[in-house]
Amino acid sequence: MMEKIYASYLDHLQGIHALNTALGLLGWDQETYMPPRGLHPRAAARAHLTGLVHDRVVVDHFGGLLEELGGLELPEDMAASVRETRRDRDRAVKVPRDLVTELAQTTTLAQQTWARARNTDDWPAFAPILAKVVELKRREAEAVGYQGEPYDALLDEYEPGASAADIEPVFAELRTGLVELMGVIHAAGPRHDDAVLEREWPIDGQDRLSRQVLKAMGFDFDAGRLDTSTHPFTSGTSPVDVRLTTMFDPLDLAKSLYSSIHEGGHGLYEQGLPETLAGTPLGQACSLGIHESQSRLWENQVGRSRPFMDYLAGQLKAIFPDRVSGLGPDVLYRAFNVVRPSLIRIEADEVTYNLHVLMRFELERALFRGDIEVSDLPALWNERMTADLGVTPENDREGVLQDIHWSFGALGYFPTYTLGNIYSATLFDAAGRDLPDLDAKIAAGDLAPLLDWMRTHVHAHGRRWTSSELCRRATGTGLDCTHFLDYLRTKFGALYA
Ligand code: ZN
What is the distance in A from the centroid of ligand 1 to the CA of 45? Predict the structure, then answer.
């Protein structure tokens, strides 16, 4: 009896998963290969499919199934799956269908409006549709409901169980530590160690390097792809179909290399989720914070580490034999780790990066409390950049228009970047304790043991626990910025001593 109900439950989820797979591919295609004039029919198709997903989630029959399963003694895995699906459904039933489709339609259009406005530095062209997106998200937050403040309803979508009030003290502690460390670095004087990288790096070589590094990380190209897009991203519809994108700049090797490693970290997580549970909560990522912990861990703790430079120097020599004179591992290490307050978040170094995120978190929170309006954003943005980082954008392209997120309705998303950085350090520290020769392995380009550790402790568990619980079980520590601050102090203290 129980098996029969559970089988109907899984069958229903597979229908939702099929629609989400189609939506995922439409979204991926929109950012990679879709011709510009394809936008309007694409927006309509996505809105329609999003409506169908909503219908299938909220349908009474499915609610009845979940109700029945909730009343049964289920084995632990099944109980966790049902609990998480009920959570998703409880949220979905509160949001009116017309709001769901209007959001899908508006955000698809807003993405293109944003891309144009950013290219031409035209904030007034983007502001009206952003105000519309914010208005719709405010309605969504009110519909979903919250205990503390409206922002919590949005944050919960990306970081289940987290609230602004919970993460605020952790972020405050982090800010204090970062500002202190920036002071030490500033006192040491400016460094331009990255000037050695200023040379032309042919795109075909950069592409080969990205693929080589991704293979070394364990990314399976029979279950994934690498393409290009303006804003690199990862889209996973199942563990055996994971799409990464990167971006190439002939004068900037770091851009493609670290975009590829970052997205590769996301891709490894997607490929490591249990394949047989695809489309069910235990086959899905725990949270965006944990997702980002994986991308940042490969990008920074591995990809910007001194041991990795031994491996990288060898790869560069093989791929660009006539362009790497003078680029030994120590030179590369300093070049890829210059700390310099800058305007663009995705190009920021490890020390200043989170100040960019904390600012966005505070602006978004104020927006949803009603303390500020969309029209206030450019000026507030510039004021905060000056106060926090000592640099002031000369235009909105370098300021409030730089990120794609708000255009696709991802409000409440930014804090997951900092949560991810915090978790990445805690996880890497624990992996290092379990794998004592990790540095030597990284230097040799043998990254499989680290991936195995992540597979076992993080990827295999899907959404079984909240992010802080997953981290606590994997490492003994929950959400706590101690390891992250220690890591930064040790690394940059030595680099800037
Ligand atoms: Zn990421």
Answer: 27
pLDDT digits (tens, 9 = 90+) for 10-64: 999 999 999 999 999 999 999 999 999 999 999 899 999 999 999 999 999 999 9
Query: Is the alpha carbon torsion for 344, 349, 354, 355 positive or negative?
Result: negative
Spacing, Cα 292 to ligand 1 middle (Å): 5
* CA-based nearest residue to 275, from 226, 241, 228, 309: 241
| Contact status, residue 353 vs residue 342, Cβ threshold 8 Å | no
The CA radius of gyration of the chain, in Å to the nearest whole number, is 22
User: What does the block give as tokens for 163?
Assistant: 């609230």
Sequence spans of domains, the chain: 2-145, 164-495
Amino acid found at 68: E
- Asked if the model's pLDDT at residue 98 lies above 90, the reply is yes
Ligand 1 centre from 265 Cα, in Å?
Answer: 8
Element housing 467 (H / E): helix 467-475
Q: Is the pTM of this model over 0.85?
A: yes
Residue 288 C-alpha to ligand 1 middle, in angstroms? 8
Quick: pLDDT tens for 400-422: 999 999 999 999 999 999 999 99
Going from the Cα of 263 to the center of ligand 1, the distance in angstroms, rounded, reads 6
What's the topology of domain 164-495? Neurolysin; domain 3 (1.10.1370)
pLDDT at position 231, please? Answer: 85
DSSP string for residues in 128-197 = HHHHHHHHHHHHHHHHH--SS-HHHHHHHHHSTT--HHHHHHHHHHHHHHHHHHHHHHHHT----GGGGG
Q: Is 67 annotated in the active site? A: no
Please give the pLDDT value at position 190.
85
Q: What is the pLDDT of residue 230?
A: 84
What pLDDT does 380 receive?
Answer: 98
The answer on pLDDT for 218 being more than 90 is yes
> 159 C-alpha to center of ligand 1: Å?
14
Q: Which residue spans within 171-298 are E strands per DSSP?
A: 224-228, 234-238, 241-246
C-alpha span between 340 and 115 (Å, rounded): 27
* Amino acid 221: pLDDT: 98
Asked if 251 and 198 touch (Cβ cutoff 8 Å), the reply is yes
Task: From the candidates 140, 263, 292, 364, give the one annotated as an active-site residue.
Answer: 263
